């Protein structure tokens, strides 16, 4: 059973954990669950789209989607396995972690624990099953593993003018992008453009450009064999050092280590 076919099955048992390990490239359209979703991306990239944001999940990272959140999930062609556990939500009120979408680097311990659940692939596991306590412990440990979600996301907007500006930034991510020049190109004052970013994206111009550069870099690192120096240049940095520092601030990993892992 594939993940799309399994969507109606996930919520059938309120107090169970539904396990799904899938090896494929897929786009799962907008949907939601009455359970919280823990998924580990093994290889490549995954993209989560909500009403307001698009999140990028690199290999060897996991994400948590809270119950009731409408989302679209796209698994890239090189994401060999998406390992997902859909947890009962009866205790989600006990910790704020379970109420927010988050992306986190996966420790070796968590990876091994998630891999162990493949024995239950495609089925519900509940209190009647042996080792259900293992899944309870896995869920309880999640809030203790990482305190801060990685900011690997770009906001969405329906504002037509902002869409044109975003398209321009995407096409010119490797070039000099400064507020004065971009505002002039779109016949706006710097103040007006700054306000437009804040009102439509809740993010400053500089924050958006930096995030766009970092997400583009993540995609290039994972989906190509280009040297890190070339990637730095392609996303608008003239030297590897500043690029590496910015990348580390964004992902908590150096570009070379990110590719190696």
Task: Estimate the mean pLDDT confidence.
Answer: 93
- What profile does the largest beta sheet have? 6 strands, antiparallel
Q: What is the SS-derived class?
A: alpha+beta
Helical residues, percent: 40-55%
Helix tally equals 10
Element-by-element helix/strand order: HEEEEEEEEEHEHEHHHHHHH
In which order are the strands of the major sheet placed? 9-6-3-8-1-10
* DSSP strand count: 11
Distance, first to last CA: 30 Å
Report the C-alpha radius of gyration, rounded: 20 Å
Q: Choose one word for the global shape.
A: globular
How much beta, percentage-wise? 15-25%
Low-confidence stretches: none
Main traits of this protein?
261 residues; 11 strands
Notes on the protein architecture:
There is one protein chain. The two termini are 30 Å apart. The chain is α+β, with helices and mostly antiparallel strands. The strands form 2 sheets. A 6-stranded antiparallel beta sheet has the order 9-6-3-8-1-10, sandwiched between helices. Strands 2-7-4-5-11 form a 5-stranded antiparallel beta sheet. It has helices spanning 3-10, 108-116, 132-145, 160-171, 179-185, 190-201, 205-223, 228-234, 240-251, 255-260; strands at residues 17-22, 26-31, 36-42, 45-49, 53-58, 61-65, 71-75, 81-87, 102-105, 123-125, 153-155. Helix 5 (179-185) packs across helix 6. It contains 10 helices and 11 strands. Keywords: DNA-binding, Transcription, Transcription regulation. Residues 163-261 form the HTH araC/xylS-type domain. This is Helix-turn-helix domain-containing protein. InterPro entries: AraC-bd (IPR003313), Homeodomain-like_sf (IPR009057), HTH_AraC (IPR018060), RmlC-like_jellyroll (IPR014710), RmlC_Cupin_sf (IPR011051).
């Amino acid at each position: 059973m594939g993940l799309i076919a399994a969507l109606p099955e996930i919520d059938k048992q309120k107090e169970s954990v539904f396990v799904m390990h899938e090896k494929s490239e897929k786009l799962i359209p907008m949907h939601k669950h009455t359970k919280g979703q823990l998924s580990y991306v093994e290889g490549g990239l995954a993209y989560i789209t909500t009403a307001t944001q698009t999140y990028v999940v690199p290999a060897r990272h996991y994400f948590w989607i809270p119950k009731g959140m409408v989302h679209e999930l796209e698994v890239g062609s090189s994401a060999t396995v998406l390992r997902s556990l859909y947890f009962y939500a009866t205790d989600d009120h006990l910790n704020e972690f379970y109420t927010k979408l988050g992306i986190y680097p996966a420790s070796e311990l968590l990876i091994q624990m998630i891999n162990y659940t493949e024995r239950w692939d495609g089925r519900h596991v509940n209190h009647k099953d042996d080792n259900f306590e293992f899944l309870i412990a896995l869920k309880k440990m999640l809030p203790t593993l990482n305190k801060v979600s990685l900011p690997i996301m770009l906001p969405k907007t329906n504002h037509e003018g902002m869409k044109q500006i975003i398209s321009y930034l995407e096409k010119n991510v490797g070039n000099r992008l400064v507020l004065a020049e971009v505002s002039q190109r779109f016949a706006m004052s710097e103040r007006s453009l700054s306000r437009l970013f804040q009102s439509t994206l809740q993010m400053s111009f500089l924050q958006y450009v930096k995030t766009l550069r970092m997400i583009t870099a993540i995609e290039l690192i994972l989906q190509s064999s280009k040297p890190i120096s070339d990637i730095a240049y392609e996303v608008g940095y003239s030297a590897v050092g500043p690029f590496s520092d910015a990348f580390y601030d964004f992902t908590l990993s150096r570009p070379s280590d990110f590719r190696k892992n």
